[in-house]
Design brief:
CATH architecture: 3-Layer(aba) Sandwich
Bound molecules: zinc ion
Distance between the termini: 24 Å
Number of strands: 7
Helix content: 25-40%
Number of helices: 10
Radius of gyration: 17 Å
Structural class: alpha/beta
Length: 246
């Protein structure tokens, strides 16, 4: 199963401690936005763009790079029995959260919504690839998306659809991990460390990212241990660097 890692290490499991990643040190080559004129970040759920590369988006937006966001789903299927919203209501909550978060990192345009069903992106992968083509056709566009082996089926299907669309348009594909930090371990053989690059965040951009992350109350709050993104997972995503696969 391509989604085995999260099946084996669900979010409620302790996973790899952030201290272990910090101790490992990583020592990756740097990633630069030089030559990028437009960023299109395509994410399966409204929060992945900020959790994965919110600081990079803040940096790009502040240096005049056009940033567009495409939300493949509205994230309506997140299971939170302690909340009373219907899926439609939850989708509205999450759309509002991501719109606020994007403004916080300097991206004023709300995401384009593709309204694919949360949890079932793989069923629509081919249509999704076709649908993404017009979004990725401007010259010098860099398409950022979740990593194709991130361990969550929607993250992986979205990534594969982006790869296919980029092949057609010539856009540069850059992937970023979200759940990998939780289930993988330093030096893990499933992770393409040779393609990994680090993007250091300046103080202002790190601060903007952390403020943006706080907009996702629906995902960060809940009974202790049952949050969708629990504190031990979030710890990996608010570092002073972000990691991408080139
Ligand atoms: Zn996600």
């Amino acid at each position: 199963m391509v989604n085995a890692p999260l099946d084996e290490t669900p979010p409620t499991a302790p996973g790899t401690a952030e201290a272990d990643w910090q101790q490992w040190g990583m020592n990756l080559p740097a990633f630069s936005l030089d030559g990028c004129r437009r960023i299109v970040v395509v994410t399966p759920h409204p929060d992945d763009e900020i959790l994965g590369i919110g600081g990079l988006l803040s940096t790009g937006a502040s240096s005049g790079i056009a940033v567009d966001v495409v939300s493949v789903t509205d994230g309506e299927a997140a299971r939170m029995p302690w909340r009373n919203e219907s899926p439609t209501e939850l989708a509205a909550v999450r759309r509002a959260e991501v719109a606020r978060a994007l403004v916080t990192v300097g991206v004023g345009i709300p995401p384009v919504r593709l309204r694919r069903p949360d949890g079932r992106v793989a069923d629509f992968e081919r249509e999704l690839a076709r649908e993404l083509v017009p979004h990725l056709s401007t010259p010098d566009t860099w398409c950022f998306t979740t990593w194709r082996h991130d361990g969550h089926p929607d993250h992986e299907a979205t990534s594969r659809a982006c790869a296919s669309a980029c092949e057609e348009t010539g856009a540069r594909l850059v992937e970023f991990p979200v759940w990998m930090w939780h289930w993988a371990t330093p030096g893990h053989p499933r992770v393409p460390w040779d393609r990994a690059r680090t993007f250091p965040l300046g103080t202002l951009h790190l601060h903007a990212k952390r403020e943006a992350v706080a907009c996702f109350a629906s995902q960060l709050s809940g009974p202790p241990g049952e949050e969708i993104v629990p504190p031990h997972v979030l710890a990996h995503l608010v570092r002073n660097t972000e990691t991408v696969f080139v």
